[in-house]
Amino acid sequence: MKMNSFIAGICLFFSSLFSCQQKGDFKSVSAEEFSTIIDNSDVQRLDVRTVAEYSESHIPGSININVLDKEFAAMVDSTLQKEKPVALYCRSGKRSKKAAAILSEKGYKVYDLNEGFEGWKKAGKEIEE
């Protein structure tokens, strides 16, 4: 009996430890859902790729703040409105998860384009060059 409660305690410890590991609270969505979300004019569109990537093409109406820039968090706070949701993306979905975690920890409501700009183009969605 003592061993079972010990094991249960260990399981509880590890489950609480790992459940706290998630960085931020944001929702990753498909291109279709992202498209619906950004149809709302209150939603801020954020491209977290490099300036060069953004310059080639991007989702219309999006602003560019490179998540790899060491001043990313400060630039976000001086550019975005915390009371409005943010829909963000990168090339494939990796960097945007990092950005989404940073923003959600700062109190922003965040939607992440799961497959990034590549998934957006593959879905045939509108781009601006």
From TrEMBL:
Which parts of the sequence belong to the Rhodanese domain?
39-129
Cite the entry's keywords alphabetically: Transferase
Q: Which SUPFAM superfamilies match?
A: Rhodanese/Cell cycle control phosphatase (SSF52821)
Q: Name one GO molecular function term.
A: transferase activity
InterPro entries in the record, alphabetically?
GlpE_sulfurtransferase, Rhodanese-like_dom, Rhodanese-like_dom_sf
- This one is known as Rhodanese-like domain-containing protein
Give the source species: Bacteroides stercorirosoris
